[in-house]
Design goal:
The chain is of the alpha/beta class. It is globular. The protein contains 3 helices and 10 strands. β9 and β10 form a beta hairpin. The mean pLDDT is 90. The protein is 20% helix and 32% strand. The strands form 2 sheets. A 5-stranded mixed sheet has the order 3-2-1-9-10, covered by helices on one side. The protein has one domain (4-160): Metallo-dependent phosphatases (Purple Acid Phosphatase, chain A, domain 2, 4-Layer Sandwich), CATH 3.60.21.10.
Length: 165
């Protein structure tokens, strides 16, 4: 039996109207919804609409269990955190620290936010770091979010632009 899962990933929405977030969730109709932090919404809204989410540096802190999350979907182990905890300049140094963290956590995919820049990068050991960008304040590019599709132990990442951007 072939298992296919679609995962919506967004980050750094910074208080975009909840109705706009809900429209994206309904439009994409994914199996999982994930937020990488800096949402600035009511905590109950987040619990109702997202399977996994973490607090960003601009969110009210909801306890250490919302600093990071580890979970598995279709055999892929994910680590989710906002990313400001390891933020380094210049950017390429930050990327090295993110890969190091992914190796330390022993995961296949590290999802993060904070930079507002869409990124999917894989190292020579097939570990992936991925950032969905920001729907409201994309830097260096357009506003973005991400769809991850897992099928037959294959994982694909798709950059999406919200219709209202």
């Amino acid at each position: 039996m072939v298992e296919t899962k679609r995962i919506l990933v967004m980050s750094d929405t910074h208080g975009l109207k909840q109705d706009d977030i809900t429209k994206i969730i309904e439009k994409e109709n994914c199996d999982y919804n994930i937020h990488c932090g800096d949402y600035l919404y009511d905590f109950d809204y987040m619990k109702e609409h997202f399977d996994y989410f973490v607090d960003g540096n601009n969110d009210v802190k909801h306890g250490s269990e919302y600093n990071s999350k580890t979970f598995t979907i279709c055999g892929f182990k994910f680590f989710l955190f906002h990313g400001n905890q390891l933020f380094w300049h210049p950017y390429h140094v930050w990327i090295k620290h993110l890969f190091y963290e992914a190796h330390q956590q022993n995961v296949d995919v590290l999802l993060f936010g904070h930079s507002h820049t869409y990124l999917v990068q894989q190292d020579n050991q097939h570990i992936i770091i991925a950032n969905p960008g920001s729907i409201t304040m994309g830097r260096h590019r357009k506003s973005t979010y991400m769809i991850i599709t897992i099928k037959n132990r294959e994982i694909n990442f798709e950059e999406k632009v919200p219709e209202f951007a």
